[in-house]
């Protein structure tokens, strides 16, 4: 399992990954654990998922090895659009806070911006020197997007014109594998191939602190709502919860998976979900 995401109303979880029957996206009932739907359309592994909208009207978005991004009606589970401009696997998708812009990251060395309503691209592709395999996130305020890639860089872009803002953010030579922004936009957390978690100041682009405990790549990081905790998932099979102020590990979980590819808090933060 490569990806896991909660629905806006907290009643369902969507998972994405490998499949032998082209059922790469599955929908589950949170309370019962029962399968609600198999979504067919992709022809390759699904790496990423995002849920857009409100509890009564929402869209699920998925990105895949088959180079496509697919949009699904979360009431009927029918496919409503297919975005096909990427020329390699799609590794990350993210919706802007206003729900109007979709960001995607791909192994074709680019990130792209899309109009959610009509599926049309916005501006030119955002270019990196290597695969943008790890992340794309919208920064609060609605005018900036951040990408990270295997060229060891994090980049901030202007949403309106697609131009890079400032210089690359860098710290060391380890590929960045995952990123997440705090809700207030003051900090970004990143997970790297060397097992290090870095906390960045979004105003300066500088590292505030580093946390080390994992022993392998960190493909997933996320914040809780008040910005005081961070979750990390690692290919060493562990999930850890960190205190942002002290850098101490609040909770460590050996999940039973060989790899943890995705971690997320439930919307009410009473549970966490992991995918591996």
Automatic annotation (TrEMBL):
The ranges of the WD repeats are 39-82, 83-124, 140-167, 169-210, 211-252
This protein's record includes keyword Repeat: yes
Concerning SUPFAM superfamilies, the annotation shows: WD40 repeat-like (SSF50978)
Q: Its domain of life?
A: Eukaryota
Protein name (database record): WD40 repeat-like protein
Which SMART domains does the record match to this protein?
WD40
Keyword Repeat applies: yes
Q: Which UniProt key words apply to this protein?
A: Repeat, WD repeat
Supply the Pfam families for this chain. WD40
Matching InterPro entries, A to Z? Answer: WD40/YVTN_repeat-like_dom_sf, WD40_PAC1, WD40_repeat_CS, WD40_repeat_dom_sf, WD40_rpt
């Amino acid at each position: 399992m490569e990806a896991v995401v909660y629905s806006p109303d907290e009643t369902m979880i969507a998972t994405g990954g490998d499949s032998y029957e082209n059922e790469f996206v599955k929908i589950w009932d949170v309370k019962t654990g029962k399968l609600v739907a198999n979504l067919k359309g992709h022809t390759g592994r699904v790496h990423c998922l995002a849920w857009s909208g409100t509890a009564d009207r929402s869209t699920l978005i998925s990105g895949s090895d088959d180079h496509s991004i697919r949009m699904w009606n979360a009431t009927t589970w029918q496919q409503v659009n297919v975005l096909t401009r990427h020329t390699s696997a799609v590794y990350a998708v993210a919706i802007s806070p206003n729900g109007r812009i979709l960001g995607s990251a791909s192994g074709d060395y680019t990130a792209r911006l899309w109009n959610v309503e009509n599926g049309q691209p916005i501006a030119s592709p955002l270019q990196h020197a290597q695969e943008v395999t790890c992340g794309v996130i919208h920064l609060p305020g609605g005018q900036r997007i951040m990408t990270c890639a295997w060229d060891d860089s994090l980049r901030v872009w202007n949403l309106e014109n697609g131009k890079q803002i400032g210089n690359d953010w860098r710290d060391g030579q380890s590929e960045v594998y995952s990123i997440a922004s705090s809700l207030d936009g003051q900090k970004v957390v990143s997970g790297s191939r060397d097992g290090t978690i870095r906390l960045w100041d979004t105003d300066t682009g500088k590292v505030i602190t580093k946390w080390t405990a994992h022993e392998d790549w960190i493909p997933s990081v996320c914040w809780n709502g008040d910005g005081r905790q961070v979750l990390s998932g690692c290919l060493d099979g562990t999930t850890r919860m960190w205190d942002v102020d002290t850098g101490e590990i609040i909770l460590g979980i050996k999940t039973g998976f060989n790899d943890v590819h995705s971690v997320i808090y439930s919307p009410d933060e009473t549970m966490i979900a992991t995918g591996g």
